[in-house]
Amino acid sequence: PGKDNDELDLELVVHYLMCPPEYDALSYCWGTDAPTVKVEFPADGEFVTTLIRPNLAAAIRRLRLPDRARFVWVDAICINQTDDKEKSLQIPKMATIYERATRVCVWLGEEKDDSALALSFIKNDMLDLGQIDALVNEKGTERAWTALSKLMRRPWFSRRWIIQEIVYAKEAILYCGNDAIDWTDFADAVTLFADYEIQWKLASRMKGHRLLGRDLDYFSDVQALGATRLVEATSNLFRYDESWRVTQKFRSLEYLVSSLSVFKASQPHDTIYAIMGLAKDYWFLEAPSKTQSAEGEPLEQPQVYEADYSKPAHIVFQDFVDFVIRTSKSLDIICRPWAPDDIEQLPSWITTLKAAAFETQTGGRCTRINADSLVGLPGIMATTYNASGSRLPVWNIESISSPGQGIRTGHSLIVQGVMIDTVQEVKLPAHEGIVPSDWLEFGGWTDRSAAPPEELWRTLVANRGPDGTNMPTYYRRACKHALLHGLEGGGLHTNRILAECSSSIVAKFLRRVQAAAWMRRLCKTTTSTLGLVPKNTREGDLICILYGCSVPVILRKIECDGLRPEACSFCNRSALKCVYNHCTHELPKKEFYYKFIGECYVSGKMD
């Protein structure tokens, strides 16, 4: 207990999780500041001295009561963060810890950037649905909307662990400085703010406002912010009972890892470990013994998994890819960006977040940096494309060693498929969403009075509408309008046109062009077919369809010096043993291998 700047008075108390006292669980952002706040507390009859981070110290001061003790579970204190074995044991219990807490207390940080105004705006104005249209359309609310947008960009909303912490909370309260708000009220406000019509009206009204400076399209990223994604996740990924307890999980681990990349983890292992407790196809300790439904139908059995922080991150990631291919019967995971981009020894078939569509920049602004993944998200509907038809993947992961050196130099994913074409010529990428003007002539549009060629405009949108749906019939007409009226300075500046566009139809078409073409190259193959390929594609790269992958991919043949597998793919004996014991399986001579460049769109080859 204590007031204001009194010294922190803590005590570490051990209780069984099956019958704990009433307690709260803290959810907060560790921050980048070093642990500098010294705290002492009794534990097991001894006094323990440790350093905690300033943001945690601020959270404890805000939550403590002035006259009595308060039980709060805090990860940095209750788990030894330097002990990988202890962390591996505690990770499976995290969901239970937050589920059994009386409430989850979320600490967003101290008051700044008009955060008090933002919370007051939610509680006193936004939640009155009768006046929401007036708040959007009338002058005088610009500062409040901007304050809410800044609050939604706080670092806490980018943490990967918060998804589990909020999903399992019976009750959650957000604290920011001296203010607080119930999570359900905040979630309703975020949902309203992210509504497409409201967002469009606000973005149009706020262009050039003095509060936003030179930022012409400040509110355009609201739907991609972590706060919006968190509300969507808690609403759509699970089923709850009347007491807000999770009763059913809807999504696979593959879906969660692929769709929640906006949420970051301080440790690479937590890219997977922080959300696998939310997946329908993963169990931490033991699979359920029930194998049949009441009607006698076999039940899909989740896989047993144990977190292991002692494994190198690249091994954890390779194990994850292998698991996904086994459970999904698909290779699409190699096309989706999901892995942190600062991990060494990652093979090319583990796609990192450098290829992600959006990036969260300093200050919380979420901006597009690449096109959307062509394979889309798993398990929502039928796949967006169907390049490999009904062929299932045939794969194996092999370790590769360099002869004479005795060291492992990488890992190979052995797959089967067919080569369908070769890249003959590539154009510059659509950098920052600017479609180069030479794409048009390259695509066959030489007569500007005529409509753009069918293959060209379909390629610009990858022959699909938003989220993999069929294209609206107006795309051809919208394409011609945009190209005739928007070309300037050597290209089609999609962002500039969107910031000034008065036609919602043209705007929808241009956003689809951005989703399909941003930072991709327009290419022509040896069979004179148009396509969209990754920005690092070269002439001579191979276009292949891998069995089990829903889209074609770009592979590059790499010559090497006698690399060969450490183990036979079939009998699992070492390469040396197979050679000398006359294994009937012929080991491949690794005189070359293929580097995975990325997914691609090729006209006429997608279905």
Biggest beta sheet attributes: 9 strands, antiparallel
Helix coverage percent of residues?
25-40%
How far is the N terminus from the C terminus?
Answer: 65 Å
Oligomer classification? single chain
Question: How would you sum up the global shape?
Answer: globular
Structural class: alpha+beta
Average of the residue pLDDT scores: 85
Number of strands: 25
Work out the helix count. 20
Radius of gyration: 27 Å
Strand content: 15-25%
Q: What low-confidence regions span 5 or more consecutive residues with pLDDT below 50?
A: 285-293, 401-410, 572-587
List key phrases describing it.
607 residues, 5-stranded mixed β-sheet, 29% helix, 20 helices, 9-stranded antiparallel β-sheet, single chain, alpha+beta
Report on the structure:
It is a single chain. The protein is 29% helix and 21% strand. The model is unreliable at 285-293, 401-410 and 572-587 (pLDDT under 50). Strands 14, 15, 16, 20, 21, 22, 23, 24 and 25 form a nine-stranded antiparallel sheet that branches. The N and C termini lie far apart (65 Å). The protein is globular, with a radius of gyration of 27 Å. The protein has 20 helices and 25 strands. The chain has 607 residues and is α+β, with helices and mostly antiparallel strands. The longest helix has 16 residues, at 313-328. Residues 23-165 form the Heterokaryon incompatibility domain.
